[in-house]
Amino acid sequence: MTPAARVQAAIEILDEVIEAAKREGAPADRIIADYFKQRRYAGSKDRRAVRELVYSAIRICGEMPQCGRAAMLAFAEQDASLPALFDGSTHAPAPIGKSEQAAKPGVAPDWLVERLVAASIAGDELAALMGRAPLDVRVNALKSDRSTVDLPEAGETLAAPQALRFDGGTQVEQWPAWRDGLIEVQDHGSQLVCQALGASPGETVIDLCAGAGGKSLALAAAMDNRGRIIASDVDKRRLGNLPPRAERAGAAVIEPLLLDPGKELEALSDVAGAADLVLVDAPCSGTGTWRRKPEAKWRLTPERLAKFAQTQDNLLDIAAQLVKPGGRIGFVTCSLLDEEGAARIDAFLARHAGWSAEAPALPLGRQYGKGTRLTPFHDGTDGFFVAMLHSAC
Ligand SMILES: C[S@@+](CC[C@H](N)C(=O)[O-])C[C@H]1O[C@@H](n2cnc3c(N)ncnc32)[C@H](O)[C@@H]1O
Question: Is S-adenosyl-L-methionine found in the keyword set (predicted)?
Answer without folding.
Answer: yes
